[in-house]
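The instructor's notes for this session suggest beginning with a concrete chain rather than abstract definitions. Hand out the sequence below and ask the class to guess, before any prediction is shown, which regions might be ordered.
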Amino acid sequence: MIPQLLLRAVFALALGLAALPSPVEARPAVAAKLSDQDRADVQRIERYLNDIRTMTSPFLQVAPDGGQSKGTVSLSRPGKIRIEYEPPSALLVVGSGGPIAVYDKDLKQVNYVTADQTPLGVLVAEQIRLSGDITVTRFERGSNVLRITLASTKDGDAGRVTLTFDDRPLQLRQWVVIDPQGTETRVSLLDPKLGVTLDARLFTFTPPERGGGNRQ
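After discussion, reveal the predicted structure:
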């Protein structure tokens, strides 16, 4: 069985809210006080994310302990994602609209999670909304940089994610997922390419012939 801490780090790539439930009673997220310009930029970010139908990029992931991993993330909306880590990591994550497979190539072991157990739903949803079930808890503007922090509207303590964008032109560059315990996993997109043609086989996972599996 793949440890939940490892699953959390994996799904930090998936641009969304924390993968695990909060250890305390759910409390609603507190919305940021946004200026008219802030609200206009939030709407611009929402449109930008919805315009992304396909994307692929090499990434650098920095775990809470400072450990670094590299790999490639590919997505095709709605519902499809592939996260493949480079050696020495042996992890592969594949989702195509149903249960999401987390596969350890060394152990030949696969675990399954559903989209509602992960942040994947935010990234690969048919329609991305930065309102309703999601609350903007902070918005920052720097020199040609925008940062927006999101949390679950119903449970603000369940974790949050900060997305960092280059501005003008708007481009997603990084996200930081903070879990309910306050630990951070940072993911930087090194060379994102949007609107690319992706082989459908990228999002197909064939279970291994050997090794165990657990559905979570």
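Then share the key points. Residues 1-6, 15-20 have pLDDT under 50 and may be disordered. Helices lie at 4-11, 36-51, 120-124.
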